């Protein structure tokens, strides 16, 4: 298990997650945004998979999906993206069989929709169910990235459960990283990633 969260020179974890996935993703890849929200990560993934790639996105809030779709349209990238108004805990059932075992990156950005209803957060049980499915969808060399915020009700419990899940996977088959910000001030998330070897 790798960690360098105490290094003050490192980038904010959101940027580290994007940088790591940028290195992993290539043109034509398949990727999943498990928590579309306002679409910033979906847009990032749509750029990273190139013209021949596809991004599948999930969110339970229609308003979020509308905002994300407009963001993609503004960049002319909506043709590479399929958005599902569904919980990420349904991803294995919703995605076509042809996608299973071929996904290069799955992003989770947990918590509530910025600017939206703060009561509608991701939840530990559905997050853990979705993480298990995400693992089964990964291609060899593929990775799951989870940004977990701890400041809202249920957030700390969810983040601890995600870290425990990731630690339990560390082996010859999965490389695991956990990054915890050195400063507890502000709303910085923790970052957990799992890479299939
Ligand atoms: N990635 C987003 C972005 O770039 O703007 C931010 C995501 S926001 C922190 C978390 C999102 O997760 C919210 O939009 C919320 O509706 C969504 N969410 C909550 N429970 C969910 C679930 N079971 N499945 C999928 N999305 C869920």
How does this model look, in words?
The protein is an alpha/beta fold and 197 residues long. Helix content is 34%, strand content 23%. Strand 1, helix 2 (40-48) and strand 2 (54-59) form a beta-alpha-beta unit. The longest helix has 15 residues, at 155-169. S-adenosylmethionine (SAM) is lined by residues 35, 37-41, 58-61, 64, 87-89, 109, 111, 113, 120, 122, 126.
Per-chain topology:
Layout: H1 13-24, E1 30-33, H2 40-48, E2 54-59, H3 62-74, E3 81-85, H4 91-94, E4 103-109, H5 124-137, E5 138-148, H6 155-169, E6 174-179, E7 190-196
Parallel strand pairs: 1-2, 1-4, 2-3, 4-5
Antiparallel strand pairs: 5-7, 6-7
Strand content: 15-25%
- Give a count of the beta strands, DSSP E runs of length 2 or more: 7
**So what's the overall shape?**
globular
Major beta sheet, strand line-up: 3-2-1-4-5-7-6
**Structural class of the helix and strand makeup?**
alpha/beta
Radius of gyration: 16 Å
Order of helices and strands: HEHEHEHEHEHEE
Main pleated sheet: 7 strands, mixed
Poorly predicted runs of 5 or more residues: none
Bin the helical content: 25-40%
What is the overall pLDDT average? 94
Question: How large is the count of helical segments?
Answer: 6
Bound chemical compounds: S-adenosylmethionine
The rounded distance between the terminal residues' Cα atoms is 14 Å
């Amino acid at each position: 298990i790798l960690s360098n969260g105490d290094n003050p020179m490192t980038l904010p974890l959101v940027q580290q997650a994007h940088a790591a996935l940028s290195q992993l993703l290539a043109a034509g890849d398949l990727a999943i945004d498990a928590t579309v929200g306002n679409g910033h990560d979906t847009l990032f993934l749509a750029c990273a998979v190139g013209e021949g790639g596809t991004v599948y996105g999930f969110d339970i809030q229609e308003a979020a999906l509308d905002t994300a779709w407009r963001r993609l349209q503004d960049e002319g990238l909506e043709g590479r993206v399929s958005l599902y108004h569904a919980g990420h805990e349904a991803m294995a059932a919703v995605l076509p069989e042809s996608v299973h075992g071929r996904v290069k990156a799955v992003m989770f950005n947990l918590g509530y929709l910025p600017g939206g209803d703060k009561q509608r957060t991701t939840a530990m049980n559905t997050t853990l169910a979705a993480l298990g499915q995400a693992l089964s969808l990964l291609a060899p060399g593929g990775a799951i990235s989870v940004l977990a915020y701890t400041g809202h009700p249920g957030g700390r419990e969810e983040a601890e459960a995600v870290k425990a899940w990731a630690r339990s996977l560390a082996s010859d088959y999965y490389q695991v990283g956990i990054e915890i910000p050195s400063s507890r001030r502000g709303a910085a998330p923790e970052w957990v990633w799992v890479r299939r070897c």
